[in-house]
Amino acid sequence: MESFPKLFIPGPTFVPNHVMQSLTSPQIGHRTAEFSELMSTVVSGIQKVLYTNNHVYLASHAATGLWEMGIQNSVKKGILHTVNGSFSSKWASVSKDCGHETGVLEYEWGKGVKADDVDAQLSSGKYDVFAMVHNETSTGVFSPLEPISELLKDKYPHIIWLVDAVSSMAGVKIETDNLGIDFLLSSTQKAWGLPAGFSVCAVSDRLIELSKSIPNKGYFLDINVYEKYYKKMQTPSTPSIPHLFGLKYVLEQIEEEGLENRWVRHIENAEYTRNWAKDRGQSLFPEEGFESPTITCIQNDMEWDINGINDQLLERGFRMDRGYGKLRGKAFRIAHMGNVMKEDLTEYLNNFDEVLNG
Ligand code: PLP
To answer: Is the CB of residue 200 below 6 angstroms from any atom belonging to ligand 1?
Structure first.
């Protein structure tokens, strides 16, 4: 088989052979009892990882489609987006493109979302939906959900809360039901550690109910259509069955590792990477207190030759990230989520050191 560099980019992330193998199960019909059994196993496994009883829908497309599902099934009056990086910015532009009254709470790249700022915007009364990105992949900024949850419960219980957890779900503890998240979404190529092209979301009962009263949602992303099939443990259209087998396998792996151990592993690997960077004279790009447990974004204070390092790491069989968009060369990211274990990370950072010490 052709060999490709081992991935330390923030998605798609590294998928070892034993996980890839799990996607090679024989095909099954998607309107059969065996499919419903498989889906039921996958759904209940995901519910455990997300600490939720909410319905979990499985979508055979990238998470970008779920951005639209969240918006199109919830907004009547207006939607407030926080924007602190590239993905949150794109999501806000999708709301505008869908024709919704869209407010934007904008932060400088590197900054985290603060409940007080959200409060100031929501108090205008212009919005019935609030959308945020939990872990801004472009900047490695992680915005804790707890303060936002407290704010919404306390002052805006009627607001529907949409959370993009694309690069945090399955790598960070998210207590969906305790937090009161109405729509939590992710795709499989980040901390789930599977190939791309598949996404999952957890949808609250009140959002399922609300969706019924919203016209012109189209068909493909209509929550009510998903719900109709969910009752039979099926998907509305033919799903990517290999991904379901992959999820089943990954969920078994997560069960074996233990949820708490998994969350701790991600935090420890993040701390290890942060210290590695600081010990070499670099600083972290995110503001203090908002550093991601799944991606470390390192500010290139030492002016390392990122392109040169990239070439040498590639020769050694590793794919590094050189910084997202406007950050290229100024800040770069190391992903440590999903299947990236401590030994993978040390192997990568040792190689990085050898290149640096050239
Ligand atoms: N949201 C975040 C935070 C992301 O990092 C990404 C992709 O990297 C997306 C959304 C889009 O995900 P997908 O490529 O699965 O549509």
So the answer is: no
